[in-house]
Each structure stands twice: as C-alpha cells, then as structure tokens.
Amino acid sequence: MNQEHSGSGDPAKSLELLWRRRPAPTRGPKPALTVDGIVTAALKVADADGLVAMSMRRVADELGVGAMTLYRYFPGKGELLDVMLDTVYGELPRRVVPGDWRAALDEVARENRELYLRHPWLLQVAISRPPLGPNVMAKYEWELTAVEGIGLTDLEMDATVSLVNGYVHGAVRTAVEARQVIQRSGMTDKEWWLAHVPHLDQIGDLEKFPLSSRVGTAVGNEFDAPYDAEHAFEYGLERLLDGVSALVGNRTAPEG
Amino acid sequence: MNQEHSGSGDPAKSLELLWRRRPAPTRGPKPALTVDGIVTAALKVADADGLVAMSMRRVADELGVGAMTLYRYFPGKGELLDVMLDTVYGELPRRVVPGDWRAALDEVARENRELYLRHPWLLQVAISRPPLGPNVMAKYEWELTAVEGIGLTDLEMDATVSLVNGYVHGAVRTAVEARQVIQRSGMTDKEWWLAHVPHLDQIGDLEKFPLSSRVGTAVGNEFDAPYDAEHAFEYGLERLLDGVSALVGNRTAPEG
DNA sequence: GCTATTCTTCGTACAGTGTACGCAGTTGAC
DNA sequence: GTCAACTGCGTACACTGTACGAAGAATAGC
C-alpha cells in the first residue's frame, strides 16, 4: 500500500454513479464528456503508468479538458476510483465450475490473479468498504457460489472466500513489486545481490546466519533470483486449498 | 500499497547506515544529530500518524532542525525508511519453539502480526529487496529455524516462510484498513451499511444476489460488521497450517 | 596563531498533488 | 426575451522530495 481511498461522500451520489442512474439534465450546455469516457481514460493512465501517475490533471489532459472539468462528473478522485474498480471487476469471466469446490476455488483464485496482473493499481486500492456497484456485487456472489453446498456454515463460506482473495492479493502484490523493482532499479535480483555481497563480506557477520546462507543459496541456484512468482503462487495456493480441504473433509464425514 | 520504496543508492552507503559503520569525521563542526536520533523521531511520527505524515519536513520539525539537515545523515527518504524497517524488526522477541514446527510457525505468525499492528506503516513498505541490516537478517534466520529439520527441501522451507509472512501481511492489512476507515469516516461498518441499504433497495437488483444476501446477513448478525479481524486471522492461520501439515505429513511418512 | 580544508546547517526553488471558489458563457423553460 | 440551470475551467493554497549553493564552524598542518 500507499492506500488510495474510496469516496467518502454520500452513498446516494456514489451509487448513482456506480449504477449509472444519474438523471440527464434538461437545461444548460450539453456535457462534453461522459462518465464512461472519463473512466476509460483514467483506466488507460492507471494501467499504463500506475496509480501514482493517475492524477486528475493527467486524466483531464488525456481527454483534452481542464482538470476541474472532471469535478462536474465526479465529486472527487475517490469516487472515480470506485467506478474504475467496479468497471474492471466486470472483466472477470466468472466461470462457474459445478460439483467440484476445489476446482471452483482454484478458478476464483486464478481469475482474480489475472485481473490483478492486468491492473496492478488494484493492489493499491483499499476495499474494506467496497463500492457497491453491479460488478463488485456479482463478483462476491460468484465467489460464494464456489463454496456453496459443501457443508460449510455461512460464516465459514465468507471466511474462506476472504482467505482466498487475501492470498491472491498478497501473492500478486509480491510478484508485482518484484517486477517493478527490476524496472525501477534497472538491475536484476542477481545483480542486486552481487552488488551487496562484497560489502556484506566486509561486515563479516554472515556466519551468524547459517540457515539463511544455505537456503538463500539453494533458492538463488534454482531461480537465479531470491523469488520466483509462479512457483510461489502455485505452492501457496496448493497449501491453502489443502487446508480448506481438511475442514471440508471433517465436515462431510460423520461427526465423532 | 501506495508503495514507498527503499533507497536505490549504492549498497555501500546503505549497508554502512544499517550496520552503523560510518567512520566519524575528524574535521568540521560536530554534528547536532545522530542516525539513531533521526530514526527514533521518524518512528514516532510514522507510528502516530502513518507514513503519509512522515515527511522529511515533519521529522526535521520534530528534531528542531531544517528539513535539509536530514540529508547530511541519509542520502534520501528511502534510506531512512530502510533503517526504520531494520530497527523495528529488532523488536521481534524471536522466541524459538523447539521440536514442534506447527507451534513454531504459529509463533512466527503471531510475532509478525503484533509487529504490524504496532507499526501499521510497515504494511506500506515494499520489501521485495529488503534492506540487508542485522535485524532483517536475524528475522529470516529465525523464521527458517521454525521449519528446519522437518523433512522439507530448502526451496520448500523458503516458500513456507514466505507464505506465512504473506498471509500475516494480508490479514493485518485488511484489519488495519477496516480500523482506519472507521476513524476516517466516523462511521461504524453497520452505520455505513445502513446508509446504503435504502438506496440499494431503490435500485432493486438485490434479488439477483441471493447468496450474498444470505451470507452477508449471517456475517452481519454474528459480528455486527461485515468483517471481524480476530476471527479472520485465526480461521485463515488454521487453514494455512493445516495445508502445510498435509505436506509435512506426506514427507515424513514413508514414500509409496 | 594563521590558513586551508572539510564539514555543518539550512533558505530557496521547482515541479508536482487534490480540490475550493468563482467567473464566463451556453442552453432550454417559461 | 428573460432567467435559472448548467458547463468548462483559471487561479489559488498548502503540501511533497530534494538539488543547489551560501554562510559559518571546527580542525590539520604549518
């Protein structure tokens, strides 16, 4: 995170925007822009250069208008982010895998992962109170479908879906960070490590960390880097679903 | 994230700062500040008001000096963050639980959780290339100790430790976001929900989301909020360790 | 003690940020 | 034709990290 926040304005205005229920004005000049047009431009900027680059001025430039013009369409930047979020959630295929909760949860994880990879700025948006737009709500409904009817309580269903979502968020965040730091520094992980080793040797406390040295070397040899995103994602997801499996298995088995 | 980054400067300078190996200058005026003093002031600001508030000017104010003075001690804000990170990692008790990998990993998770809760700004610091200070290295060594000698490969040891760390990061991030949004909005989750319901009813598509309605209601009744941090953390950690258990169990059992 | 060198503190400046305020011009309702 | 409603947007404010260079302090070498 540096977290970016949702709009804190009144729910009526936010929901009006999310569900496109704004009544068209009868008088005054015809608006030059549309909500969808602004969101498209903002998504273009955010996808290309990240949330940091997505300033109101930059989005306005993209549309050939002044910065303050955007405030005729959105109460503030927070509300624009809300609509951007709901919009990209609409990209989820939301494929349903019936009869196999593990495959269904796997699908949920992978679709979410693809979405984060396509829109890495999503990782920086705080969603503890998600914008209640059509696609946000459809996403939650779809995720619950994956764990419906397998013997979990409603609370456990919610907790499981949250757990998978949290896992994917963390895994992709780590992967994206790793990718971005290579870009920003112009250095691969190996180069970075090799630049540090001589100075660390000089400090000379390395023998106090025998496990780190052994494991670090093994990881470096395997991946040419201290971190491999693909491997980490698969490993973690398997552990996680195994953990859920232990719970589901207990639940469907007769109680002792 | 809005991610804050580490210092990208040369490793020599960074390691010198992290390990406090800067040679004391012989000539010139006596420095008015120390590295530790600046870090303490910066931690005070970050703990109290978050990373957003921790500007160079604010830290300098805290110390009664001009903003540019700090640049005599640190090449830039990134390096200051690096030393802050290594410093708070030093707060970990690093208790070792011998002979029981599950209890040991549980301890790792809980100590990390406490650290994040005490210093929520840690959640916003990108650590894909961690500052190689004494406490960062000791932390990794301690975490590996928890899974040493239980039949995992070196790669699996690293992946397991990363998985637990990633899980804790995500769980605390969600919890902290939830706490902060209450502060910022001056609204409890229940109040927020009740403010939205009438407008959602008016939009009238709620019957398209039956699972969400049922599960959401159950969660709301149980916790008076759509999210309970304590419950989510315990539930997720148990699933995670169960998943690791499945792997360790396979490994220690004789191979087919 | 004198001077040259090194090291300190820090004021100013620059290009950015979100958005409050208010003005000028355009459109449709009456 | 008049007025209210509406649009676009210029300006301003308080912030950010930090490059640059000036002014002064402490010491090494003589």
TrEMBL record, chains A, B:
Coiled coil (residue ranges): none
Organism field: Kribbella soli
Keyword Hydrolase belongs to the record: no
DNA-binding region location: 55-74
InterPro entries (alphabetical): Homeodomain-like_sf, HTH-type_TetR-like_transc_reg, HTH_TetR, Repressor_TetR_C, Tet_transcr_reg_TetR-rel_C_sf
Record-linked Pfam families: TetR_C_1, TetR_N
Full protein name: TetR/AcrR family transcriptional regulator
Keywords recorded for this protein, A-Z: DNA-binding, Transcription, Transcription regulation
GO MF, any single term: DNA-binding transcription factor activity
Domain HTH tetR-type, chain residue ranges per copy: 32-92
GO BP term, pick one: negative regulation of DNA-templated transcription
